[in-house]
Design brief:
Blueprint: H1 2-20, H2 26-38, E1 56-59, H3 65-75, H4 81-85, H5 114-133, E2 142-147, H6 148-152, H7 154-165, E3 171-177, E4 180-181, E5 184-185, H8 194-201, E6 204-209, H9 213-222, E7 230-235, H10 258-267, H11 280-305, H12 309-319, E8 336-337, H13 338-352, E9 356-360, H14 364-367, E10 382-384, H15 389-402, E11 406-412, H16 420-429, E12 434-438, H17 456-461, E13 467-469, H18 474-484, E14 491-495, E15 499-500, E16 516-519, E17 526-530, H19 533-547, E18 552-556, H20 560-563, H21 568-574, E19 580-584, E20 598-600, H22 611-617, H23 622-633
Parallel strand pairs: 1-2, 2-3, 3-7, 6-7, 9-10, 9-11, 11-12, 12-14, 13-14, 17-18, 17-19, 19-20
Antiparallel strand pairs: 4-5, 8-15, 16-18
Helix pairs in contact: 1-2, 1-3, 2-3, 2-9, 5-7, 5-15, 7-15, 13-18, 15-16, 19-23
Length: 634
């Protein structure tokens, strides 16, 4: 029966790509045998895709999405044959790469390698959950299907090194080794021994024929009792069953053609005139997932009902975090670096929310992100990623998708470039993943231009559904967190290394509006707007201007993204139309031309010198700001 099931998947995938005249038929056809056998091992419930103790199945090669959708349809998820026929069409449940709006899709993997790191993240999250709730409540597996491209991307090895270090025995990676990439055979750019490399990382590794049902079955049974993460290297042929295109790189990213598909169907005993065909016996065998899932889910619900009252309350607080319980620290009249105030805030949140968890890419002492007294992974809240920013972001995305955690990840702002793909996917999925980025500007000083973030603020402000907060003092930092925790989106906190003077109370508006008046004149001629450390600079400049008889408004803008969402009436209130507007930011800051008449920003990569000297050298002094303002209103 396996062969008929696998061939059904193959031809559904080929038909989807052919009808759309777009897509990747090769990998799905090559993996059909593995997915068919794997479907009998998965512990999941298509009627309840969010069941907490389900096995997670991650398709790292998101381009093989026709395989994902065929599997979901046959298993009984809310993906119909009509949805398969709408593959890659506008507003369909079957987009070109899987997105989490489709029931059964665990995570949007996107670029190659992300899914491998996501799978490691799910496996780590499962261990964290098991520590909190017990092995009777959390005991599922994490399966990941990946290919040559995934393992060539560096992120996969960043993540797998962590998997091996932590002996993630709940992780099973199935490597579709068809030795084909877009340009041809993998040998043109790759010659390493994957088995040896993964064994060195701490994995147990098996090699099988990816088209032998007995070998697939044996390997998956072996996976159930491992004490290490498990890599199954499955030797396959791309576009298996596709006649003359079997094994060819030409089958990777283009439709096979109606004639080849018809011949392939006929050779397999299928009617070549039928498209999107699923025989009743095939549907029956795949649909057994519904009965198995219902039963497993019901047995788990019974175990949950038998938990102690304390454990029940813990599970409820994990599923429904109560932000009102957070006792935020008080920073009134306190000069403090925002990385320091942020560290105290993180600890306050961790004390109130059992699902708040995170760590740094080997920079916790500098990022101030240690959760003091909360222990180390897997028995505590502090995650250590080593110097692996890219994997860190993808792992924390998986924590956010797991269902009970609110993760944060941290590094220097300049290294946010290493994890941008993960941040972008977090935004695409609207994940509550909090990015902590310190050493926010040329204030890094002596480390020089390689470590001074100049264009990064503009980069992340340009990203849809991503909120970048750059607080100007401790009090504002607290208010930023209060807003961020209630947003259904990832947020970044860009924090200073240097101490910042406390601000006065807002005169109009609040952090929730993205920007607010921190100083207001009765007859303003100029409005100065800034974020972070430059707010204090603008306040100093405003005094010099007032001494010259010039009325000044000062706006603190901790979140440019929220500001852009405000009504025009609010914008006109904080940026008085009769004034000239000068934006001041120690970054490229080109986005400020949306509101400002002029921008004092960075036009180079910075330099190596003490921070105070750099601010002065690049024009970020109260005197220079005041002089620019005077020139603007002449």
């Amino acid at each position: 029966m396996y062969k008929k099931q696998a061939d059904t998947i193959r031809f559904l995938c080929a038909d989807m790509v052919q009808k759309a005249n777009s897509g990747h038929p090769g990998a799905p056809m090559g993996l059909a045998d593995i997915v068919t056998v794997l479907s009998t091992h998965l512990n999941h419930n298509p009627k309840n895709p969010n069941w907490l103790n389900r096995d997670r199945l991650v398709f790292s090669g998101g381009h093989a999405s026709s395989l994902v959708y065929s599997f979901l349809h046959l298993s009984g998820y809310d993906v119909s044959l009509d949805d398969l026929k709408a593959f890659r069409q506008l507003h369909s449940k079957t987009p070109g790469h899987p997105e989490i709006e489709t029931a059964g899709v665990e995570i949007a993997t996107g670029p190659l390698g992300q899914g491998v790191a996501n799978a490691v993240g799910f496996a780590m999250a499962a261990k964290s959950a098991q520590n909190l709730l017990g092995s009777d409540i959390i005991n599922h597996k994490v399966y990941c299907l990946c290919g040559d491209g995934d393992l060539q991307e560096g992120i996969s090895y960043e993540a797998c090194a962590l998997a091996g270090k932590h002996n993630l025995d709940n992780l099973v990676i199935i490597y579709d080794s068809n030795e084909i990439t877009i340009e041809g055979d993998t040998s043109i750019a790759w010659a390493e021994d994957v088995k040896v490399r993964f064994e060195a990382a701490g994995f147990e590794v098996a090699k099988i024929d990816g088209h032998s049902y007995d070998e697939i079955e044996f390997a998956l049974n072996e996976a159930k009792n491992k004490t290490k993460p498990y890599l199954i290297i499955a030797k396959t042929k791309i576009a298996k069953g596709a006649g003359e295109l079997e094994g060819s790189h030409h089958a990777h990213g283009a439709p096979l053609g109606a004639e080849i598909i018809a011949k392939a169907k006929e050779a397999a005993g299928f009617d070549p005139n039928l498209s999107f065909f699923v025989d009743d016996d095939v549907k029956f065998w795949f649909n057994l997932a519904l009965e198995r899932g219902d039963l497993a889910n019901a047995l788990w619900d019974k175990k949950v009902s038998e938990l102690s009252q304390d454990k029940k309350e813990l599970l409820n607080s994990l599923l429904n975090p109560d932000f009102s319980k957070i006792e935020f620290p008080v920073f009134n009249a306190q000069k403090i670096a925002t990385r320091d105030s942020n560290g105290k805030i993180l600890n306050a949140i961790a004390a109130a929310l059992p699902g708040f968890i995170g760590g740094s890419a080997d920079l916790a002492p500098s990022n101030k992100t240690e959760l003091k007294g909360f222990g180390e992974y897997p028995n505590g809240k502090n995650l250590h990623f080593g110097i692996r920013e890219h994997a860190m972001a993808a792992i924390c995305n998986a924590y956010a998708r797991y269902g009970i955690f609110i993760p944060f990840s941290a590094t220097f702002f300049i290294f946010s470039d290493y994890l941008k793909a993960g941040a972008r996917l977090a935004a695409l999925m609207k994940l509550k993943h909090y990015f902590i980025w310190t050493h926010d500007s040329i204030g890094v000083g002596e480390d020089g231009p390689t470590h001074e973030p100049i264009e990064q603020l503009s980069t992340f402000r340009a990203m849809p559904n991503f909120y970048t907060f750059r607080p100007a003092d401790g009090v504002e930092n607290v208010e930023c967190w209060k807003v961020a925790l209630r947003l259904n989106a990832p947020c970044a906190f860009v924090c200073s290394r240097q101490g910042l003077n406390p601000l006065d109370e807002p005169k109009f508006g609040s952090v929730a509006n993205g920007a607010y008046l921190i100083k207001e004149s009765q007859n303003p001629q100029i409005t100065l707007v800034a974020s972070g450390s430059e707010v204090g600079l603008c306040l100093e400049a405003s005094k010099l201007l007032e001494n010259s008889g010039i009325g000044v408004n000062v706006v603190s803008a901790p979140c440019f993204d929220l500001l852009c969402e405000q009504e025009s009436s609010y914008i006109n209130r904080i940026f008085a139309p009769q004034t000239k507007i000068l934006a001041v930011e120690a970054a490229t800051a080109l986005e400020w031309y949306k509101f400002a008449d002029n921008v004092l920003g960075m036009r180079s990569f910075g330099a190596s010198a003490p921070a105070d000297e750099l601010f002065k050298y690049f024009g970020f002094s109260a005197t220079n700001v005041a002089n620019i303002a005077k020139d603007m209103i002449k």
